[in-house]
Amino acid sequence: MGEDVKTPPHSAEAERGVLGSILLDAETGEDTRVLDLCLTHGIEPESFFDPRHRIIFETLLEMSRETLPVDGVTLIERLRARGRLESVGGLPVVEALISGTPTSAHAEYYIDIVRQKHVLRKLISTAQETERKCYDGDGRNADVILGEAESAFLGIGGETSTKTDWKTAIDRTFKSLERLFESTGMIEGLPTGFKYIDEKLLGLKPAEMIVIAARPSVGKTSFAMNIAECVALGADINGRKFEGENGRPHPVLIFSLEMDAESLAKRMLCGRAHVSSWRIARNLMAATEKADATASLIRAAGELKRAPIYIDDASGLDVSDLRARARRMKRQHGIELIVIDYLQLCQCREVSKQGRQIEVSRISGSIKSMAKELHIPVIVLSQLSRANEQRGDKNEVPKLSDLRDSGAIEQDADVVMMLRRPSMVRATRDDVETQNLAVVDIAKHRNGEVGDVKMNFFRDYVRFGDRSQKDETAAAEDVQRQMDEAAAPHEMHQEQIVIEDLM
After folding, report:
1. How far apart are CA 172 and CA 170, in angstroms?
2. What are phi and psi of 132, to 5 degrees?
3. Residue 342: cis peptide before it, omega within 30 degrees of 0
4. Is 258 one of the annotated active-site residues of the chain?
5. CA-wise closest residue to 70 among 102, 111, 38
6. Distance between CA atoms of 204 and 118, rounded to whole angstroms?
7. What are phi and psi of 441, to 5 degrees?
8. Are residues 50 and 57 in contact, defined by beta-carbon separation less than 8 angstroms?
9. Fewest Cβ atoms nearer than 10 Å: which of 47, 64, 138, 368?
């Protein structure tokens, strides 16, 4: 005896009810009310199981887009003109849709049934495809298949969940503006922990893709980790707690594609403790220094252990797997900020054979989509090309076109920050004025101002800090002191000559 073939979930009655309600709207003067409801709830031609109903719904959509009357007569004429009238069963089927639907008042109920059945069919299809991948393998490991499956299943449920009613959007925006009026800090999103950066960005806002770009060894990883630390601890770079809601810990997820978790933790720990890891490694500390350093490290370790920071240091992640892991962590730990270090180390196997530019473009678009889907800010680190170095010292400031591999990064990003340290570019590295200077050039800001922000960079423990006017004055005084010291021997020599002449 053969195995019974199961019919996929569907409701022919509900499908006819939806189509009949759309056609009844024209008679009641409601125009496309039901059709609009269908679009709001994510109904598409594929939502209908019966092929005849798919053709009819698709034709009704075409008529609506062309501003034609959405009624039975126009539908029949359109189907006849397209040579599809017989495909749907002829005039009796179309007429039965109207006569078989007493009222359109229950249209939303019919729509929900059609949507539910469509979701069930997609779940079955996705499960079957996942089963096929598990048996075939296709050379992929289990984690990749799991990530793809999770992404596919979550995508089914999230297809209609992101749609927001216009009135709802206005209400939310108004409430957000009200909070800004009442607040003193004018921070809309998560504070970065750096005063002058926050004055320009007004915080890291939900659904934003923030790109931090720099040449190798400039400090973009350290800068991003400083921000992640401040967000996770609810305090600025100097340890002062943020005001209000921002003063609580915010869970942060870090995808470290370049460094392992231990190396990253070491850098964060030494940076927060203000301890030089290379001096410890080379045993260059005196006994008293070691004691002070140990105490600082213990204090910093206690603080960071309480911070809700999660590190995924898997290398060579495919962007689909990265998104699946991010969804999982968002669901499990309520992640509020994601840091990706760095974009060029991500992969997109789906288009990898089509060229690196297309691959990076796909990766960038996927990360932006992830930020919108999870409704959290995503910081993405990116490499810069050598173009700014080749332009010479006069043009050392990077441009948006210097973003490596693809112009799509510039297009997808909401904020682009170019990090540079003048002491690494200029001819003399002993220049007191620039040796601790770091500059963040905000080259793109979709919702605010651009410009540069000067910061301090402490090389011994690889950490950034706010650079105040006091710091600028001190740097200028150091330069003047050096100039005075350099001129002093010459002045003493001239004075000696005068004395000898008098004698």
Report:
1. 6
2. -60, -45
3. yes
4. yes
5. 38
6. 38
7. -90, 110
8. no
9. 138
The residue behind tokens 């949507």 is 115
Per-run averaged pLDDT (10 residues), the chain, 503 residues: 71 90 71 76 87 90 79 86 87 84 82 90 88 76 73 63 57 67 67 88 89 86 91 88 84 89 85 79 70 83 87 81 82 90 80 78 86 90 76 64 73 87 63 75 85 86 78 52 51 47 45
What letters, b where the CB count within 10 A reaches 16 and e where it falls short, cover 33-72?
Answer: ebbebbeeeebeeebbbbebbbbbbebbbebbeeeeebbb
Token pair of 391 as six digits: 């332009």
Q: Which residues pair with 214 in a beta bridge?
A: 383
Residue with tokens 């101002």: 449
Distance CA 498, CA 503 (A): 9
Q: Residues for the chain: how many in total? A: 503
Instruction: State the catalytic residue, choosing from 258, 289, 303, 433.
Output: 258
d(C-alpha 217, C-alpha 228), whole Å: 19
Distance, in Å, from the CA atom of 453 to the CA atom of 503, rounded to the nearest integer, reads 58
pTM reported for the whole predicted model = 0.64
